[in-house]
Amino acid sequence: MSDEYFIADLRASFRRNPFITFWRPNNEGYTYPLVWAGRYSAEDVRSGGEYYTKCEGNTLARCAVPCDAVFWIAGEPARGLVDGDVGPVMPNTPNFRGYLRVSACRKPGEMLGGGGLHGPAAELLVDAIRSARRRTQEDLASYPLLHAVMDAFETSPWHARWLCEAAQIDPKTVITRLHARANDGGRS
Q1: Where are the beta strands (DSSP E) in the chain?
Q2: What's the rounded Cα separation, in Å, for the pair 93 and 166?
């Protein structure tokens, strides 16, 4: 796991933005592309306390997220939405915001969502894999395993890597398709 963190700003007033908003280096503004986002050390996050972690009611509105957890799921923006079409970015959808909230840190090195596969989330994923395998065996062309994994990802994105491994699918394939789905308004 990386010792560097992005600060994701998920406040309600940013929900209409096309992409998730991240803080630039040194707390100096906002950006969508990760290449322009600041990388904050564990010490920065620890000493920043509530400045880097803020809630709006019961919802996490600003949080430190390990860079590794963000980079693996980020993708390229649709043309014309970011200056120079610079990426990678994260679509600003409920699923991607939820993924960041679950991946957020209480304090550096400690994930809010936990790392183990257990409880209701695990049961959902096991059911999704079984269902996907049944669908794939019944009619591979009409409902490929990839779509089942994409659907399961939207149910519990925290365990997406594990799910991809269990289904023997390259995670980048799923992420590429999820970005395409977000860019075309959910039609793919």
Answers
A1: 4-9, 21-23, 30-31, 40-41, 54-56, 59-66, 105-107, 110-111
A2: 25
CB 76 within 8 A of CB 172: no
Collapsing DSSP states into helix, strand and coil, what is residue 52? coil
What's the gap between Cα 26 and its chain centre?
A: 23
Query: Each residue of 98-127: pLDDT tens digit?
Result: 878 877 875 444 444 434 333 444 445 445
Give the helix/strand (H/E) hosting 28: none
d(CA 16, CA 93): 9
The token pair that represents 63 in the structure block:
């949080």
Q: What are 8-22's pLDDT values in tens digits?
A: 999 999 999 999 999
